[in-house]
## 1
Amino acid sequence: MAPRGPGSPSNLVPWAAAVLLVVGAKRALALPEICIQCPGSVRNLSEVALYCKQTPELMLQARCCLNQKGTILGLDLQNCSLKDPGPDFPQAHTAVIIDLQANPLKDDLANIFRGFTQLQTLILPQDVSCPGGINAWNTVTFYMNNQTCQGQRNLCNSTGDQEMCPENGSCVPDGPGLLQCVCADGFHGYKCMRQGSFSLLMFFGILGSTTLSVSILLWGTQRRKAKAS
Ligand SMILES: *[C@@H]1O[C@H](CO)[C@@H](O)[C@H](O)[C@H]1NC(C)=O
Ligand SMILES: *[C@@H]1O[C@H](CO)[C@@H](O)[C@H](O)[C@H]1NC(C)=O
Ligand SMILES: *[C@@H]1O[C@H](CO)[C@@H](O)[C@H](O)[C@H]1NC(C)=O
Ligand SMILES: *[C@@H]1O[C@H](CO)[C@@H](O)[C@H](O)[C@H]1NC(C)=O
Ligand SMILES: *[C@@H]1O[C@H](CO)[C@@H](O)[C@H](O)[C@H]1NC(C)=O
């Protein structure tokens, strides 16, 4: 094997791996803000706790039920004195079950749940309507102190794709009572009428990976300097 100088690119590989590992570990440790927005943890017999205990891979942490990647699947903010769910609430857009009962919520939740496409069970104070209205859910049940909105309906199916969205776009759900028209591949712009392959995602992808490799490079060289001195 040929001897390699300290600056050779192969030396960067373990550094890069170390950086990614550290970043990954930090991500796993840091709980999303929404999970600690309210003190305490999920109560034992609450619906969120019951949901979380059904699957061994899921774990309860503070007010959340998370999977092993740290994705929020359940959120229990009951009895948190909330007038509104707050700016961190979109972090919970992956949740399947959310409990907001026993809060003085204002009765206007429609846009707060934009993007919450996975949500199947929502528990609310009795005086707050299910977001999207009664037609956005399969069942709405009233109890003495709360109500549950259950089974999010896909409005794209009932309203008819063709009428809602332009010719080269298609309808996708965007949370309770909400939908979105997404342009087909190769189309963009107003009413999906412009053709071309401009892709914002790809642009950010390239920019993002360049930034990352530069950071790793800097981190690696800085560390080596620090060690030498
Ligand atoms: C909550 O559940 C845990 C185990 O699931 C149990 O050890 C604990 O005693 C329970 N606490 C209460 C107050 O029921
Ligand atoms: C709500 O929280 C308060 C303390 O913040 C507590 O005293 C009360 O018992 C709780 N109520 C319920 C129904 O959990
Ligand atoms: C809703 O409130 C009732 C009391 O009216 C309570 O028994 C029930 O457990 C609550 N439902 C949920 C899902 O917490
Ligand atoms: C809506 O339609 C899609 C396919 O167009 C289907 O996969 C989905 O199961 C339907 N959902 C409901 C609730 O009917
Ligand atoms: C939709 O796409 C087809 C080609 O796939 C094109 O002929 C048509 O003009 C497009 N319609 C609109 C409204 O842009």
## 2
Amino acid sequence: MGRYLTKTVFLVHTPILLLHLFISFSSGASFNSNEKKGVCISKGGRFPPYESQGKPPKFAYLELKNLNMCKLFSGKTCCSASQMKSASLAVKNLATYGEATKHCLALFELLECSICNSKVGIRSGHPRICASFCDQVFEACSDAYFSSSNASKQVIVPCGASEDTICRKASKWVTNGTAFCNATGFTVQIAEEPCFGSSAMKESLRESFFEMISMELSALAGFFLFNRLEKWLEKRRARIQREARERLEQEE
Ligand SMILES: *[C@@H]1O[C@H](CO)[C@@H](O)[C@H](O)[C@H]1NC(C)=O
Ligand SMILES: *[C@@H]1O[C@H](CO)[C@@H](O)[C@H](O)[C@H]1NC(C)=O
Ligand SMILES: *[C@@H]1O[C@H](CO)[C@@H](O)[C@H](O)[C@H]1NC(C)=O
């Protein structure tokens, strides 16, 4: 049983693991005093404020579990349900109305989930995305459909159910990855600053992955042991009852 479930966990997350291979770039670091504290700083703009604003990123597996998005970052994150809802709506629209390829959906999901990465969470301002990662997302999503948005600082969103909006391919709205990230509400980082999609970030994604897997496995082990314990207690209870019954029968 243990082996079967482990396999399932890996199957579910394999696409995200593969994504790591597409991510490359490098980074240096300079933090302001607020950022040095390592606490969650809400991103503003279209991004819902963090409930854990001012507190350090924490384990949020249970909260993210049922939303099935951004789970990769659940080991250590500033996110809670409100960020998940906004990210999953965007990805759901892209899947339903955007005619996006699987590769586009996977990369766009990772982009939307960037706010749940703990390193993005503790930096101020809009999520900083590496230009190279923006290029990859744009390349994969240039034929997917987006519409204009009047939300603050965001120009385009994946097309939704509403027929009032004009849907056009991403490549008709913008012509490169930098402009794509900017139009979807992210700040593009070109050099020398930590950003989402960098090689340092790749390392932290790998860490996130193993953190999440180990949390999942320990939850599983706990469940397994609890079951064993229950069965053992059940057997013990039955034996005590049997012994008591036998003693009574002997006494009669
Ligand atoms: C966009 O504008 C319409 C009216 O023009 C308004 O009803 C809607 O709430 C706005 N949406 C956002 C996200 O600001
Ligand atoms: C990307 O496109 C924008 C506007 O479409 C343009 O201003 C900018 O120079 C382009 N950037 C690159 C790196 O080509
Ligand atoms: C997008 O680019 C414009 C012009 O360079 C800039 O003013 C704006 O702040 C950028 N948006 C984001 C979310 O970084």
